[in-house]
Amino acid sequence: MDAVTSNAPIDPKLSEALRHWNDYANESGQNVRVLFEAMTPVKDSLQIAQQIMDSVQHSGWTPGSTHWMKPSALFSAYQELTEIQLAAQERENDCCIRFLTTTLGTGKQVAEAMQGASTPQQVLASCMEASLNIVRQYQADISEQAETFSQIQSAYKAWLQRTLDSLSSRQAEETAASASLPPAASEPSLPVPATPTAQSEPEKDSGV
Amino acid sequence: MLSLPARNGGRLSHGTMKQIPGTRIRTGLAVTLLLAFATAHAQEQTIKLPAYDADIHKTSVSGLSSGAFMTSQLYMVFSDIMTGAGIVAGGPYLCAKSWAANTLVQNATTTCMNPLTASTGPNTPVLVKHAALLADYGYIDPLKNLQDDRIYIFSGSRDKTVTTTVVNQTREFFKSVGVPEASIQYNKSIAAGHAFVTDNDTDAACALTQPPYINDCDFEQSATILNHIYPGLKPPAAQLGSAIIAFDQSEFIDSAYTSMSDTAYAYVPAACQNGKSCPIHVVFHGCKQGAQVIGDKYYAQTGYNRMAEANDLIMLYPQVQPSTTTPLNPEGCWDFWGYSSPGKPDPDYYTRNAPQLRAIHKMITRLAEPRS
């Protein structure tokens, strides 16, 4: 094979490795598009604001109705917060271990992949395939980490809501009446009264 | 289009066309038509869902994962016609509304799947209150309908996708809304991953969580679910006596954002086709388990149809498909957080006006119509 000849044949393994990388690039592009579609900060803010307002309205909660020094409620809140922090730390540790495991395995994967390669193109193909596997592993690790962050954020917000509810005077009465249930949050809102479907949803053929 | 060979060796001209024998033209046209016909038939042939005078008041429903959340929704909204439900790896009704400071999708993907702690999982007391309020205002059927129903709930102990912490709250929810505790069968002792369970050794190992999320744990979960909902059923039939029906699902969809497929499936045993008024069981697949993704593995290979054959039950398999635009549903899940009403801060996915629930109720109603 002449390296400067444009007609040099490409090893099938190298072609396959290039195809795999191309597929991965397309897949990543698709994932990025989906991610941007999922980011709706305005709608999310409106949704949370509406939920909180409805919750406060139905419960009649005010800062003045909160018994900030209620010992039993404070103790429970502290206990739950500790549980959350320990659980968060455990999940973060798991993520770190995953990253470390992936990193420690990269060298070995590349070395093993290059075994048996007899031509420069095959060596390149093996490196590319091993690299792609490593990239996919890191991507899975990052996804896991992102999921963990989301779980931690969600948990802290839930804890805050539970704590405020348990400290409210109305909740104290309800808790006394239904001692077997955990402290409940405020009553939620009802859905918007139904409108005729022809008006509320666009026509299927509109192409929207 | 086929290119017709020219008598002059390859170049066609106006004059040459006149010289092509009529027989060749007719042959070419015939071949073209045949190809067009074959192409059309390569896409699935669907029919209009027939009416079978089904016994609508013995309807039941079951599902896995997002299908399990959808099961709770269909069951609670239309409890007037329901006799029971089977929830496999799913959370309580309205789970995504658990915590006001989280968005619905945040709750759906954290609180309702793998919460950090039990105290930050589904907020069952709030969900029960909300359900009662919805029933009082007529958005869902009255909760008193649930008092004579039977519920099957399952959570695999190796399931890290929708954890047992979440599924525990499903049981608490149904107990709180009036289902007698003795009527609830809750199995959380099997070391199963996040999957529907079969007794088929070609399926994945029991503890795994991987596509197509159908695992061999040495028992037929479809039979277990149906036996709990309808006590005294016969064992599954060895063979099916009828063909699975592929029907036009788009007929029942009146919204552009349901993410539901054009085609869905049903299995109707011969007895139900020929005069018997049979109960309907609705089966919801999970995320990435629709026919567009895994073919017939869910609607044909999870054991439901053999139970249907042996016990004269109609199986209905609505289908949802992945969507990476609007609505955003890349995994092909059923809607338990509001994607079917994009752009609305307060989407309705959980009452009788919800787009997906409306469509499925129409399918059930069609099956229950008198035979034409």
Automatic annotation (TrEMBL), chain A:
Region entry Disordered, spans: 170-208
UniProt biased composition (Low complexity): 174-189
Domain of life: Bacteria
Protein's UniProt name: Phasin family protein
Organism the protein comes from: Azotobacter chroococcum
TrEMBL record, chain B:
Family annotation (SUPFAM superfamilies): alpha/beta-Hydrolases (SSF53474)
Listed Gene3D superfamilies: alpha/beta hydrolase
InterPro entries, per the entry: AB_hydrolase_fold (IPR029058)
Signal peptide boundaries: 1-42
UniProt keyword Protein biosynthesis present: no
Keyword set includes Signal: yes
Keywords: Signal
PANTHER family on file: POLYHYDROXYBUTYRATE DEPOLYMERASE, TOL-PAL SYSTEM PROTEIN TOLB
Name used for this protein in its record: Poly(3-hydroxybutyrate) depolymerase
